[in-house]
TrEMBL record:
Residues modified to N6-(pyridoxal phosphate)lysine: K298
A Pfam short name: Pyridoxal_deC
Source species, domain of life: Eukaryota
The keyword Nucleotide-binding is annotated on this UniProt entry: no
MF term (GO), any: L-tryptophan decarboxylase activity
Gene that encodes it: TYDC2
Gene3D superfamilies: Aspartate Aminotransferase, domain 1, dopa decarboxylase, N-terminal domain, Type I PLP-dependent aspartate aminotransferase-like (Major domain)
EC number(s) stated in the UniProt entry for this protein: 4.1.1.-
Names of the cofactor(s): pyridoxal 5'-phosphate
Family stated for the protein in its record: Belongs to the group II decarboxylase family.
Keyword Transcription regulation part of the UniProt annotation: no
Name of this protein: Tyrosine decarboxylase 2
Amino acid sequence: MDAEQLRECAHKMVDFIADYYKNIENYPILSQVQPGYLRELLPDSAPARPESLTNVLDDVQSKILPGVTHWQSPDFFAYFPSNSSTAGFLGEMLSAGINMVGFSWISSPAATELEMIVLDWLAKALNLPDEFLSTGKGGGVIQGTASEAILVVLLAARDKVLRQIGKDNIGKLVAYCSDQTHSALLKACKIGGIHTENCRVLKTDPSTEYALSPESLGEAISQDLASGLIPFFLCATVGTTSSTAVDPLRELGKIASNNGLWFHVDAAYAGSACICPEFRHFIDGVEEADSFNMNAHKWFLTNFDCSALWVKDRSALVESLSTNPEYLKNKASQDNMVVDYKDWQIPLGRRFRSLKLWMVLRLYGLENLQAYIRKHIELAKKFEELVKLDPRFEVVAPRNFSLVCFRLLPKENNLELANRLNRALLDAVNSTGKLFISHTVLSHKYVLRFAVGAPLTEERHVVAAWTTLQEKAFDLLTNFTE
């Protein structure tokens, strides 16, 4: 394919994507296909001869899109958002076109240096402590997901402790989190060789708004120390997956510091909101943390994947994750003149992801990004108000950001019946194709989650979603039986 053929095909692809967004509200939000549908529609083997892009795009339209759940739809209210944007898409396109593999500085100097600069920009926008900037001993790195971020810092924390006490003591290491912490931590412990029985998942309840209690953490650490175990890692969350609870960072951080634990803060979803001065207080106490993570690909208009991780001491990552085979040696690295991001992550290879974050920050600017976050929070407030006005429903947990946790109440006060009723409501609403919501369980209650965050969502979409919920609730309350 020469340059002119590329131009022609790229124009067709951009037109296809533009039409997709233009018509995205016409698709059922949650794919309505059955498992295995696509195998019936596609050949058993690859074509021997090339096909035209037009034919391929026709198949995307007729065969692929019916099996897509449309995360960018304005009626997508499930999970947490995974934002796309013109700026993010253009950055992704440019990254794909250049297609470099930036494992070390010398493999593409601009990729490393832009990543350092753009993560310093974002750290300053979040008002993170100076220790997290690349100008000191720390710095930022783009991981694929928050799960990878948790894994790499847990490995760094593990190895830092084992260098002091001996690797044979790994069976004594204990990690701490709440029962609202993302499951990525338990997975990281499995991968990192931390015994499952040494993962302390501390119970939360409505009395702390599902935040981790410093008292319960202190008690757990004291008990483990008395048993001859070695506390080494604490993961706190700002904006938990179930209900966007916010753990008290300052108090937890002081406990971690006093007991020699690595303190990681997971703000994968809610971290984006903290570029707004009025929401920055949610990460007060981050100065106590050893590492901090937020997903730019969730609520920051940066196409997946782009998870920003900052550490105060980059040498801890390098000592745990570095490799230096002969075929990767070069003068800049050997003389310690540069950062090699291969030593800050699990894989060797890495894409030019900083391009899209750089373009998002430049093409939108912080003021527009702040307005974008505020708009979603206002829309969530609107939905919360609608729920509170209907006595058939209740809001189950405080709304901190743009997630509303609510449930439909049965005619009689029966938890099991209420849970079945809300499962039925979730299925009824999602099967309409008009919107997509997800659920969680809080204090044994089956709870519906309404997360506002799709780039195209307006107030009319929120109101229409509520109307559908009310209609289905009426049907269920009229006809629902045990």
